[in-house]
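Q: what does this look like with flavin-adenine dinucleotide bound?
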Amino acid sequence: MLQPGTLWQNWGRSASDHPKHLARPANVDEVIEVVDFARTHGLTVKPIGAGHSFTAIAATTGIRLDLDAVDGLIAVDGNLVTLGAGTNLHQLPALLAPHGLALANMGDIDRQTIGGATSTGTHGTGSAFGGLATQLRAVTLVTADGGVLRVSETENAELLPAARLGLGALGVLVDVTIECVPAFLLSAVERPEPMAAVLDDWHGATEATDHFEFYVWPHTDTVLSKYNTRLPIDAERSPVGRFAGWWEDEFMSNRVLAAKLELGRALPGLTPAINRFATRLVGDRSYTDVSHEVFVSPRRTRFVEMEYAVPFDAVPEIVREIHALIERRRWKISFPIEVRSAAADDLWLSTASGRRTGYIALHRYHREDPAEYFRTIEEIMQTHGGRPHWGKMHNRDADSLRAAYPRFDDFVTVRDRLDPDRLFGNAYLERVLGA
Ligand SMILES: Cc1cc2nc3c(=O)[nH]c(=O)nc-3n(C[C@H](O)[C@H](O)[C@H](O)COP(=O)(O)OP(=O)(O)OC[C@H]3O[C@@H](n4cnc5c(N)ncnc54)[C@H](O)[C@@H]3O)c2cc1C
């Protein structure tokens, strides 16, 4: 089953590796075979999802385990849906539609695998909704000893708060059971608004809207707000027309964005003017469609990203601080800053663990050096008790993360129990969890 490893790069071109071997198991038994081989040959194993993490969390020098073939629908029991962990999120609408079900919430894209997305704490927005891992009810893991471990509310339940969001550190997820919801529509209102008004109304907008987010355009006083409201599936649909959808989501948000980023890179002094111009071209539309069509947009222009989870109430102050800092430092930032929210949850390493959360995400074109921008703003985030997204760029290590997560050591204890020899280890996990 093992093939020679080949050079690999993540989507954002911010991480790469050259594993010794590549394995494409087709089922649980073959996953166990690879894990046993690795253990007896002193190699590490690292499952790969869609390679959409910006950190080197999925990098390995040992065996890369591609779970592409461990995908699809395994069982449906009421709202509980069991899927192969290698299932990509974009496969879900077709798999769930015959059962009248949908994911309760989603992030911006659907390229990730369910195993990869939940392992890093992927989230969307909505202050009454948790991230994808909070929707998991049970998981099946192949552990370092080659055993199959079922974790649910009735089996090994003490491991559930760790296994639902495990950073790939506890074993290979082979299947996951998600609690879905009845399929629903989203009514979307997108419009440019003055930044000051949106920040002043942060609490009001997040409480009045199921899924609220906004994008701050640096060098302007305008944000693009998105208000998504849940409607029953039989409510009237008014999808974006084919041309309007192509214009906004494909042409403006990808092709024009790419041209604008190249121009800003060649002539950084033009960035503020380009951003001001861009705020006049995007947004200002309303439509109603099935949930995944509204939650998800294509992202074809490559970028790198750092995202911090911060206390919900601190969001307006931090956004103002970042906005002012960009001007003070005279940075030319062409990519918008994305602001979202989530409910508190009880997963030990969730960025929303134990607190209602705001998310602030910074992006840079992948051909620009993000180091100074990200590192300086990371200090602000840290001052406010921020927690970095596990799949997005940051500079934190185990000592500083231990202070940010009350249950950090409980997670490490579970890791020590399930993977004492770090079969699933890599340099990133050593940095963020310790050796
Ligand atoms: C364009 C873009 C948009 C994004 N939008 C969002 C967003 O809206 N919200 C958000 O929160 N994040 C977002 N992200 C980040 C992304 O969701 C996460 O980084 C996610 O982990 C990527 O999933 P993946 O399948 O590519 O996993 P990978 O990056 O391939 O892997 C992530 C981790 O999961 C582990 N893993 C994968 N499969 C398994 C398995 N079967 N068993 C055990 N461990 C496993 C890997 O070993 C690795 O540790 C975005 C990223 C990009 C590039």
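The chain is about 30% helix and 25% strand. The longest strand covers residues 184-194.
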